[in-house]
Amino acid sequence: MKTYIATTVRILKPVISGILQIAVIVFAIYWLLQSGADAMNYRWQWYRIPQYLWFFEDGEWFPAELLEGLLVTLKISAVSLIFTLIIGLVTALLRLSDSIIGRGIARSYIELIRNTPLLVQIYLLYFVFGPVLGLERFTTAVLALSLFQGAYTAEIFRAGLTSLSRGQFEASQSLGLSNTDSYRFVILPQVIRRILPPLTNETVSLVKNSSIVSVMAIFDLTTEGRNIVADTAMPFEVWFTVAAIYLCITIVLSGFAAWLGHRLNAPNQ
């Protein structure tokens, strides 16, 4: 009986401790916000937020402004992620190639992107290259995010490729595999497993950076939040809700990456 009680206490003790810590943090945040609101004579209007998430009409539920903006954000992030991975991998291979021109192009691209602000790049693409090339706003947003994140992802891919021993490449060739099949079946699976943690960070960063495309009047989550604030004068409730939605997205991404890393036996973050 004593052993059972001791085991139960040992299991419940960290759980109760965690709940108490979370409760203290929540109470501190609530007290801080409430004190600030009282000092500004601000009246919370949380009851109005759900109508900007969804609404019920003719017997059906429909997404409201914030959820519609969320769908746009997810669409931009998903398409940008695909192109980010392609650009990152191609750039990394160019940097490791024997071609002087290829290495020069890859290095120039990485240095150019990493040493200029994302907002300036978006302005250049939207106001200069977009009209010249006839790019739509969505395409411009995807291109800007892909080029920006691709430069950082290229370095991650390069680090993963250089971390493999030369023997892996030689073993692939000894099996008679072509270069394409060597990368497809031998090299890239090992590289992905090694770079999964930093790749997850880049994905989370891409989702957060997608909020900057709101400067191009794309109706993403941030733009919808800004429009609602302009119409309702509820900055705190709306921006806290927008931040919570972004937080949920990044937590889900991190959880998925952790699960995938566990399946692939990847190193922990």
UniProtKB/TrEMBL annotation:
Query: Entry's SUPFAM superfamilies?
Result: MetI-like
Tell me a GO cellular component.
ATP-binding cassette (ABC) transporter complex
Q: Name one GO molecular function term.
A: transmembrane transporter activity
Q: Which Gene3D superfamilies match?
A: MetI-like
InterPro entries with a match to the protein in the record: AA_ABC_transptr_permease_3TM, ArtM/GltK/GlnP/TcyL/YhdX-like, MetI-like, MetI-like_sf
Q: Which Pfam families match?
A: BPD_transp_1
BP GO terms, sorted: amino acid transport
Membrane-topology descriptor: Multi-pass membrane protein
Q: Which UniProt keywords apply?
A: Amino-acid transport, Cell membrane, Membrane, Transmembrane, Transmembrane helix, Transport
Q: Which residues form the ABC transmembrane type-1 domain?
A: 70-257
List where in the cell it is found.
Cell inner membrane; Cell membrane
Q: Which residues form a coiled coil?
A: none
Q: For this UniProt entry, which segments traverse the membrane?
A: 12-33, 76-96, 117-135, 238-260
NCBIfam families hit by this protein: HEQRo_perm_3TM
Q: What's this protein's function?
A: Part of the binding-protein-dependent transport system for glutamine; probably responsible for the translocation of the substrate across the membrane.
| Assigned protein family | Belongs to the binding-protein-dependent transport system permease family. HisMQ subfamily.
| Record-given protein name | Putative glutamine transport system permease protein GlnP
Source species, please? Photobacterium swingsii
